[in-house]
Write a structure and sequence with these properties.
Layout: H1 11-37, E1 45-62, E2 67-83, H2 90-111, H3 116-131, H4 145-166, H5 172-193, H6 199-222, H7 225-235, H8 246-267, H9 280-302, H10 307-331, H11 335-369, H12 386-403, H13 407-426, H14 430-443, H15 449-460, H16 464-474, H17 481-493, H18 497-510, H19 515-526, H20 531-541, H21 549-561, H22 563-568, H23 571-576, H24 582-595, H25 619-631, H26 637-648, H27 656-669, H28 673-686, H29 691-704, H30 708-715, H31 721-733, H32 737-750, H33 755-761, H34 770-779, H35 786-791, H36 796-812, H37 816-824, H38 834-850, H39 854-860, H40 867-883, H41 887-900, H42 905-917, H43 921-931, H44 939-951, H45 955-968, H46 971-996
Antiparallel strand pairs: 1-2
Length: 997
C-alpha cells in the first residue's frame, strides 16, 4: 500500500497513523502467536517425576581376596508429561481490554467526522456495546454500576457530539488524545472502586457478545478485499507491459473460492478428505492488510467520507478491535468462539467473494479486455452498483448459516458462557463458573473448552470419575493431546492401568507427532515387563517434543533398570548426549553406579551451581544430589553442606533418611569417617526397619578402616547370614581365629560356598583352590611354613595380595632379605588389578622405610596406590623422612596421614607422637581424641592419649586413659608404661612445686 496520500497530512496525524499501524501490527502478531500456540495458551505441559529406587552397590572395596559391596538403593527418576488444569490468566484479559480501549478511542475519534446518518448509527452501535457490558458485575460501591452505563453513554456521547457539532476544526490527534484521556480516567475510577479481583476479565467476558458482533460485521466488510487484491494483481501493468487479464483473474478467484468451499464442507463434515487448505485466519489477516488500500480507495472513489479525518482512525480502530477479539479467542482456547470466527470468515469470504467476482466481471470485463488498470476504478460501477452485490453476498451468507440450522449462533452463545465461566473461576467462585460451563455444554456438548474446564474443576476436587467423563467429551469433536493425557492419567489414578495405555495409544494414532503422549506411553510400558515398547516409545518421543530431556532421562532410567541392554550395545549411552536437567543427570549418575563402566570423575549436577543454600528438592534434584554424593570420589564441602542443609529443611522431610545416607557416604569418601559413622549409627537408631542394612554398611566401612574389632561388634547386632560371615571375617582379620570359629561354622552351614574356607582356616582340610590358599596364607599366621602353600598359588592377584602378608612377617622380624625375595616373586604390573598393584607398591615402600632408606621411600611413595593405602604410604614416608631429619617434609606427610585416616589408631598414634615431639601438643591431642572412640582397645593410641593429657596437665583424663589401658594392654607392657607414667606425673608435680616456690 502506498503512503503517498498522506503528504498533505500534518506531522501529528502521520505519527498517530503510524502508531496505529504499529498497534494493529502488534495485534496481528499476537493473533498469529496465540493461534500457533493453541491450547498451550491455557494448558501447560508439566513434568511429573517419580522416584524409582534400584538395588545397587553404593560403595565397594576389596582386600584383594574378596570384594565387599555396600548394598543400597540408587535413585532413578521416571518422568511423564501431565497436562495442567485449564488455567485462566487475567493478565491476558487486561492486555486485551487495554488494546480494545485504544481501538475504541481510534474508532470514536474517526466517528466524530462521519456524515450525520453514519455518525448516529455508529454512536448507536457504540452505546449498544456499552449496554451489553453489564457494569453492575464490577461490584462498584453503592450500586453505582447500575448507573455507570448512563454516565459513560453521556460522557462519550457528549464528547463525540461536541467534536462532531461544535469543534469540527479539531484534528484527529487531538480527538484521539481526548478520548484516550477519558477512557484512562474511567478505567482508573473503576479499578479504584471495583470489588472484584479481575475487573478487566469480568468486563471483557460480559462485553464479548458486542465485540463479537462488531468483529463479524468488520469481517463481512473486508471480505471482498482478497478479491480486490486479485483485481490489482491481474490488472496492474507488468514489466512487459501486459497485465494478466480477466482469464487469470477468474482462474485465481475460482481457486480461492474452491479453497473456501472445501473448508466449509470439511467443517460441516460433508467431506472427510485429507487435503491442505489455507487457514481462514490467514485469509482474514491478509484481508485486514489489504483493507488499508481497499478502504481508502473505496471512500475516495465513492466519496463516502474523509479518509484523513475519519476513515483512517475508524478502520484502524475497528480492525484492532476485531483482531484483539480473535486473538483473545485463541489465547483462552475458546474453541466455540474460534469456530464462530472461522465460520464467519469462510461464509463471508465465500459469499462476498463470489458476489464481488460477479460484480467485477459484469462491470469491468470490457476494461479488462482493454488491458487498463481496473483496480483504479474498481469501486465505480458501470452497470450494477456494489451495494447490490454486497446484499446478494449477505443473503448467501445467511443461507449458509441457515443450512447448518443456525448452529453458529448457538456456538456464539456457548462461547460467551464459557468466557463467563473463566471470569468466575478466576474470581474463585468455582460453583458459579462450573454452572456457566455446564450451560455452555448444553448449547454445544462436543466443545473442548468447557469440557476440559469442567474436568479441571473435577480434578481440583479429587473427583477422578467426573474428570474422566469430561475429558472423554472433550475428545469428541476437537481432540487434543492434553485431553488424551488427562484422560489417561485419570485412568491411571483410578487403577485402570490398561485403559490408560489404550487411551495413549488412541492419542498417538490421532496425534502421531505428539512427543508428550509417546513419552507417557513409554513411561507406562516401563512399569510393565514390555521393555521393548518402553524403549521404542521413549526413543521416538525425543524427536517430537521440545523437552526432549524427559524421554531421554526415561531412557537412561530404563538402561539403569536393564543393564544387560547396555552390555549388549555400549554405544546406546553415547547416543543419549547430555542435558542440564536434574532428572537426566540423576539417571545418568544412577546408570554409572549400576553399570560401573565409567571410571572418570563425574561432573557435579549443573543445577547445584545456582541452587539456594537451603533447597527444597524436587524428585530430579534429590536423585541427582543423592546419586552424585555416592559417586563423587572426593566430595567437597559445598556438596556436603548442601546435603546437610537439604536434610535439615522440613520441606524435605520424606527424603531425610536418604539424604543422610548420601551425606554419610559423602563424608566417608571425604575422609570424615567419624562423622560418617555417627550418621549411620543415627540412621540405624531412627529406622528399625532398615537398621540391619545401615549396620551392615557401618560394619563394612569400619572394616575397611582396619577397625575389625569394632566392625565385629557392629555385625553382631544383626542376625542374617551375611552379617555372620562378615563378623567371622572381621574377627579373623583381627587375629582372633578362636572367636571366629563358631561364626565360620554357622555361616558355612547356611552358605555352602564358605565351607571350604572354613575347613582350610581350621585345618580340616588342605587348601585346594587359589582362593583357599590365599586365605590360608593371609590368616594362618601361626604357620611358619605357609610360604610353601603361597608358592603354589597361580593367580597373580591372589599371590600378590597374600604374599604381602609374608612380607609383613619378615619385616616384623627384620628379615629384609626374605621380604625382598618375596617382593621379587609377586605378579608383574600388567597382570594385576589396581588393588593388587597397589599392594605390591606398598610392600616396596614398607621395605624401603623399614630399612631407613629415606630417598628410596620418598621415590617409591610416588607410585600408584588405591585410596585405601595412601594413608599408610604417607606414614611410612613420614617415618623415613623423620629418621633422616627432614622434619618439615615429615610433618607434611604426617598431617596427610591425619587427613586421610582420622580413625586408624595405629597411624594416628604414630602421627601424634611425631607432632608431640615437635611440641605440637594441641593438634596431636585433637587427632587422638577424634580417633579414640573407635580404638578404645588400641594400646598404642591410649598411651599417646595419656602422654598428651599429661603434657596439658589433664590429670583426670590421663587417669581415665590409664584405666582403659590396663584393660587393653598386656600386664607386662602396662607395668612398664605405668612406671614411665608415674615418673612423668612426678616430674610435672616437682616442676609445678618449684614454680610455686
Amino acid at each position: 500500500m502506498s503512503l503517498q496520500f498522506w503528504k498533505i497530512w500534518t506531522k501529528p496525524e502521520r505519527i498517530t497513523y503510524v502508531v496505529g499501524l504499529i498497534l494493529l501490527g502488534m495485534s496481528l502478531g499476537w493473533l498469529a502467536l496465540a493461534g500457533y500456540r493453541g491450547l498451550e495458551n491455557v494448558v501447560r505441559w508439566e513434568v511429573l517425576n517419580e522416584l524409582v529406587g534400584l538395588p545397587a552397590a553404593l560403595y565397594q572395596f576389596t582386600d584383594g581376596l574378596l570384594t565387599y559391596p555396600i548394598q543400597g538403593q540408587v535413585q532413578t527418576v521416571a518422568g511423564q508429561f501431565i497436562a495442567s488444569p485449564m488455567r485462566v490468566y487475567p493478565v491476558v484479559a487486561t492486555v486485551t481490554v487495554t488494546g480494545i480501549c485504544v481501538a475504541l478511542a481510534f474508532a470514536l475519534a474517526g466517528i466524530c467526522r462521519l456524515p450525520t446518518l453514519r455518525y448516529r448509527l455508529s454512536m448507536a452501535a457504540f452505546i449498544l456495546l456499552l449496554a451489553v457490558c453489564r457494569f453492575e458485575a464490577l461490584g462498584l460501591p453503592g450500586g453505582s454500576g447500575k448507573w455507570l452505563f448512563l454516565v459513560l453513554a453521556a460522557l462519550f456521547g457528549g464528547l463525540s457530539f461536541y467534536f462532531n457539532a461544535f469543534r469540527t476544526a479539531v484534528g484527529f490527534t487531538s480527538r484521539l488524545a481526548a478520548f484516550l484521556g477519558v477512557i484512562a480516567l474511567v478505567a482508573g475510577a473503576i479499578s479504584l472502586g471495583t470489588s472484584v479481583a479481575n475487573p478487566a476479565l469480568v468486563l471483557l467476558s460480559y462485553s464479548l457478545p458486542g465485540l463479537l458482533l462488531i468483529s463479524i460485521l468488520f469481517i463481512l466488510f473486508i471480505a471482498i478485499e482478497s478479491v480486490v487484491g486479485m483485481v490489482w494483481l491481474t490488472s496492474v501493468s507488468r514489466p512487459n507491459g501486459r497485465p494478466l487479464g480477466i482469464v487469470n483473474f477468474l482462474f485465481i478467484s475460482v481457486l480461492y473460492l474452491i479453497n473456501l468451499l472445501l473448508i466449509w464442507l470439511q467443517n460441516t463434515k460433508s467431506i472427510d478428505w485429507n487435503i491442505t487448505t489455507i487457514s481462514p485466519f490467514l485469509l482474514v489477516g491478509v484481508s485486514i492488510v489489504l483493507g488499508f488500500w481497499g478502504f481508502r480507495r473505496l471512500v475516495d472513489q465513492r466519496e463516502l467520507l474523509s479518509f484523513r479525518q475519519a476513515g483512517a482512525g475508524l478502520y484502524l480502530g475497528v480492525a484492532m478491535l476485531a483482531t484483539l477479539t480473535m486473538a483473545y479467542a485463541f489465547a483462552t482456547a475458546n474453541d466455540p468462539l474460534i469456530e464462530v470466527f472461522e465460520d464467519a470468515i469462510v461464509y463471508s469470504h465465500f459469499g462476498m467473494g463470489a458476489a464481488f467476482v460477479l460484480y467485477t466481471v459484469l462491470n469491468f470485463w470490457p476494461i479488462y479486455q482493454q488491458r487498463l488498470p481496473v483496480y483504479r476504478v474498481i469501486y465505480k460501477a458501470r452497470t450494477v452498483d456494489l451495494p447490490l452485490f454486497r446484499l446478494a453476498g449477505l443473503v448467501a451468507i445467511v443461507g449458509m448459516v441457515g443450512s447448518a440450522n443456525y448452529f453458529t449462533v448457538r456456538q456464539a452463545y456457548a462461547a460467551t458462557l464459557s468466557a463467563l465461566g473463566d471470569a468466575y473461576v478466576a474470581e474463585g467462585q468455582l460453583d458459579l463458573g462450573q454452572s456457566y460451563y455446564q450451560e455452555s455444554i448444553a448449547e454445544e456438548f462436543q466443545q473442548h473448552k468447557a469440557n476440559y474446564a469442567l474436568a479441571s474443576i473435577a480434578l481440583t476436587r479429587g473427583d477422578q470419575t467426573a474428570a474422566a467423563l469430561y475429558f472423554s467429551k472433550a475428545l469428541l469433536k476437537q481432540p487434543s493431546p492434553q485431553a488424551f493425557a488427562g484422560l489417561s492419567d485419570t485412568y491411571r489414578q483410578t487403577n485402570l492401568f490398561f485403559e490408560s495405555i489404550k487411551t495413549l495409544q488412541r492419542g498417538i494414532q490421532t496425534f502421531p507427532n505428539s512427543g508428550e503422549l509417546r513419552t507417557n506411553l513409554g513411561y507406562l510400558y516401563g512399569k510393565t515387563a514390555i521393555a521393548d515398547s518402553a524403549y521404542y516409545y521413549s526413543q521416538s518421543a525425543v524427536a517430537y517434543t521440545r523437552r526432549d530431556e524427559v524421554p531421554l532421562a526415561n531412557l537412561l532410567g530404563l538402561y539403569a533398570r536393564n543393564p544387560a541392554v547396555m552390555a549388549a550395545d555400549s554405544a546406546l549411552l553415547d547416543q543419549v548426549g547430555t542435558r542440564d536437567e536434574p532428572a537426566f543427570e540423576a539417571n545418568k549418575l544412577a546408570l554409572r553406579l549400576v553399570a560401573r563402566r565409567d571410571t572418570a570423575a563425574p561432573a557435579a549436577p549443573s543445577w547445584l551451581t545456582g541452587a539456594t543454600p537451603d533447597p527444597v528438592l524436587d524428585a530430579g534434584q534429590f536423585a541427582s544430589l543423592y546419586n552424585y554424593a555416592l559417586v563423587a570420589p572426593n566430595p567437597d564441602s559445598t556438596l556436603l553442606n548442601r546435603l546437610q542443609k537439604a536434610a535439615l529443611n522440613p520441606a524435605n522431610q520424606e527424603l531425610v533418611d536418604d539424604l543422610l545416607l548420601g551425606l554419610a557416604i559423602g563424608r566417608y569418601r571425604a575422609n570424615q569417617q567419624p562423622e560418617a559413622f555417627d550418621l549411620l549409627n543415627q540412621l540405624a537408631s531412627n529406622d528399625p526397619k532398615r537398621a540391619a542394612s545401615y549396620r551392615t554398611m557401618l560394619g563394612l566401612l569400619q572394616a575397611e578402616q582396619g577397625l575389625h574389632r569394632l566392625a565385629s561388634q557392629t555385625f553382631a547386632l544383626n542376625s542374617d547370614t551375611l552379617s555372620i560371615f562378615y563378623r567371622a571375617l572381621s574377627l579373623t582379620k583381627a587375629g582372633d581365629l578362636e572367636a571366629a570359629q563358631p561364626l565360620w561354622s554357622m555361616a558355612a552351614r547356611q552358605d555352602s560356598s564358605l565351607l571350604g574356607i572354613d575347613q582350610v582356616l581350621y585345618g580340616e582340610k588342605k587348601p585346594e583352590t587359589d582362593l583357599e590358599k590365599a586365605f590360608y596364607v593371609s590368616y594362618r599366621t601361626d604357620d611358619a611354613n605357609r610360604g610353601r602353600t603361597w608358592e603354589t598359588i597361580k593367580e597373580a592377584n591372589l599371590k600378590t595380595v597374600s604374599g604381602a602378608t609374608l612380607i609383613d612377617d619378615y619385616l616384623a622380624t627384620r628379615q629384609y632379605f626374605y621380604a625382598q625375595m618375596i617382593l621379587s616373586q609377586l605378579g608383574s604390573p600388567n597382570q594385576l588389578t589396581p588393588f593388587a598393584l597397589s599392594v605390591e607398591n606398598l610392600s616396596a615402600v614398607k621395605i624401603a622405610s623399614y630399612r631407613k632408606k629415606a630417598a628410596a621411600t620418598d621415590s617409591l611413595a610416588k607410585a600408584f596406590f588405591v585410596p585405601q593405602h595412601r594413608a599408610l604410604v604417607a606414614a611410612l614416608r613420614g617415618s623415613a623422612l623423620a629418621a633422616s631429619k627432614r622434619t618439615a617434609e615429615a610433618r607434611r606427610a604426617y598431617e596427610q596421614v591425619l587427613q586421610l585416616a582420622p580413625v586408624r589408631g595405629q597411624l594416628v598414634a604414630e602421627a601424634s607422637q611425631f607432632l608431640r615431639a615437635m611440641k605440637l601438643v594441641k593438634p596431636a591431642y585433637d587427632a587422638v581424641r577424634r580417633a579414640l572412640p573407635y580404638n578404645e582397645n588400641n594400646p598404642v593410641l591410649l598411651k599417646s592419649y595419656v602422654l598428651l593429657c599429661l603434657d596439658q596437665s589433664l590429670f583426670e583424663y590421663a587417669e581415665e586413659g590409664m584405666v582403659q589401658l590396663q584393660v587393653a594392654d598386656s600386664p607386662a607392657d602396662y607395668q612398664a608404661f605405668d612406671v614411665a607414667y608415674q615418673q612423668k606425673v612426678a616430674a610435672i608435680e616437682n616442676a609445678r612445686n618449684a614454680f610455686v616456690q
